[in-house]
């Protein structure tokens, strides 16, 4: 068989035959076969797919598979995103509809300010919510159904539970500055069941589930009166039904000192409906059960009772679904199966590469211990672990899990839209990030990864110091400004507000909100000015500038070597490039500069290597760039013997003084 010719043939011969370099001595004894075989396998392992194709003609199957996987995973994410958007929109629109139906006088955007300030307003709001619930089939534009036994644990099998919580005993006398409170909380509930026939009007034909009293006979436990126990609190009965009883007034016999104190009033019920929007995407509609909770919160006892409505949606499979002329959904199922097979194949290939690296690492460590008596450090062992493969394996696992869950959702066996969206979204993010690995094989597309790799250690140390100051500002702002500023009410809100201030967002709004509180507390207003001005000055003009300077410095360090030609023919490794007999000067595997490989990183020398000045000038030029990346231009020049120790110390001290001057001035 004829030997290969051309560029590929020369690469193959260079790969499969010993190539003398620094560390080999003329006339040295031939390399043992075991050592030569391990050297060749190490050299081939640290090659890029482009070099492997030039050396042996091996086609980059994983690269082609990743391109196909990106396409199918992205298309799958778009299809699921459309369905998930319809489901989320349906839940949000139903919540808005419930607030307009059950909350008296509600308007959009009034969630934080919607409240009751008088007893009459509170009673009207409670009765309006229950009345609207009973008239829901007649007044609502949507199709809803009652759920028997959906009133919660206090409903005792009823459809709606109207409960109030109050202190068991309480005496409050602001005139004398005295109070006497029993902190035991008592819960009283009135159970309401909708009738089997429409109500006209609802207040004349409604009774409690036990037939003892009407829900409009409710009397709340305010601090000025208490409710008579038993049947005496109901008004006179008319026709076997309890008549409407007005709330007790101050000054009556019920206004005595041993009164209860109201904490909150809750109305809990459930409604069923069907989402027909899914027919747009050729899917079977979902059946929803909404758990509605209306809360009248009086725990602050401030004269203002906020009113809120919260819903929780539960999705379940509809019974006996039937859609006339429903399209075939087999294509979407087939596409999901293709995605699973593609990700499974990618998982096997990447896992096999990781396993091969692990086995080669063990063989290399054992060989170095037996033949050279050297112990390979953990960081050097990690050079055999390809982090990009771990990223791809993680994305494959997430994609397979999310696709299986998506199939269950479309088959109406599962309803975890949020979990499925998180799995598919994260996997798609990792798949697209994994494409950067293949861009780094091209010399001029490696700037981002090279800059991040060089700057990451310094950035992490810098962020640790900044985080301490940032957390201090968060806690201080929360405890001092929280009661006066809406953006500082919780630690999460404080962190979000301060982070937006770093980017220059909402500065005037934040200052203006504190300006409105100047009349309430001048001391807090003065503190807020010092707090905000110091934070903005420190983090924008110093911290953010230094953070950008770290990234810029890393980029300036690698910029001279971005457009240089290849400086070495492989990933330098003690066995992959140099002959073992004799002293060697090598860097860690995968840390040399090559257009089709990783960007240069930190230079870690092998223990026992000679000083760099002992290296021949030609080899010194080859090893100088990694040193420049690690120690800067001065360190590289000093290590290469081009700068004396005294001048190196002088320039290093001058640069440090210059940096300190820039920082403090």
UniProtKB/TrEMBL annotation:
Topology within the bilayer: Multi-pass membrane protein
What residue stretches are annotated with the Polycystin cation channel PKD1/PKD2 domain?
A: 419-558
Where is this protein primarily located? membrane
What InterPro entries has UniProt attached to this entry? MCLN_ECD (IPR049134), ML1_ELD (IPR047316), Mucolipin (IPR039031), PKD1_2_channel (IPR013122)
The organism sits in which domain of life?
Eukaryota
GO terms (molecular function) for this protein are:
NAADP-sensitive calcium-release channel activity
Pfam families from the entry? Answer: MCLN_ECD, PKD_channel
Q: What is this protein called?
A: Mucolipin-1 isoform X2
Q: Which organism is it from?
A: Mustela putorius furo
Gene that encodes it: MCOLN1
